Amino acid sequence: xxxxxxxxxxxxxxxxxxxxxxxxxxxPAVRSLMLMPLVAFALIASTWLSFGDALSDADAxxxxxxxxxxxxxxxxxxxxxxxxxxxxxxxxxxxxxxNQPAEAALSLRRAIMLDPRRSDARVALSDxxxxxxxxxEPSAWTARWRQILAEKVSLxxxxxxxxxxxxxxxxxxxxxxxxxxxKFWPVTIALVLLCVGKAIFIAAYLADPRVSERDAAVVLAxxxxxxxxxxxxxxxxxxxxxxxxxxxxxxxxxDWSYCETPTGEKGWTSTKSIECxxxxx
Length: 281
What we know:
By secondary structure, the protein is α+β, with helices and mostly antiparallel strands. The chain has ten helices and nine strands.
């Protein structure tokens, strides 16, 4: 009886019945979990390799003078990878060879929007607009400082630096407020960090072409468009705008868009004849 009582105290026995065995992770499950990162890496690597092959084919077609094939390949790469300044620039060069200046102007503006420091895209756009008889855009000081900042500095790095300085200043200010002792200089330093960080962040945000040029559009109609006084075909013509020119869309009404030229003229035009620089989903 003594032995039976002792046996009943074993953790494997309860009320005279054996407890169910503890379930652990089986070896196949562990092996599957270990293989999942490898499978994901293999899928990503194969995707990038196939993308690299597609780009190589597009570049080879461009060098060989097969511009239609190169254009289709660059457009497919953009659809698969997403927006890329380099791909838009290559697409623009192909469109120029295909005698599509308006489409090339749109692609160059998208390349500049994604990478404002691409001087080759800016030079190509300037040459293209000059060849199309498009007047240079007036450079107001509000636009000029944005362009200079975007060309000279990485806006992404500037945004990160501003955010870090602002958060450091904010946490430092909270720490100083709740500590004892003299607070004048610590509070001053914290406020300076906070204000400088916010100023840097705001400047980078406003200089980003994706913000400053979010309403920009390019005239794609081969013969250009007419800005009208009202959204009706019989309205008076305000201004004739050539193909490839830049416009700013203020609002839309049905099939019409109310636009403004860089020089300030405003009027209505068909929405189908223009395309936004920021790609629509």
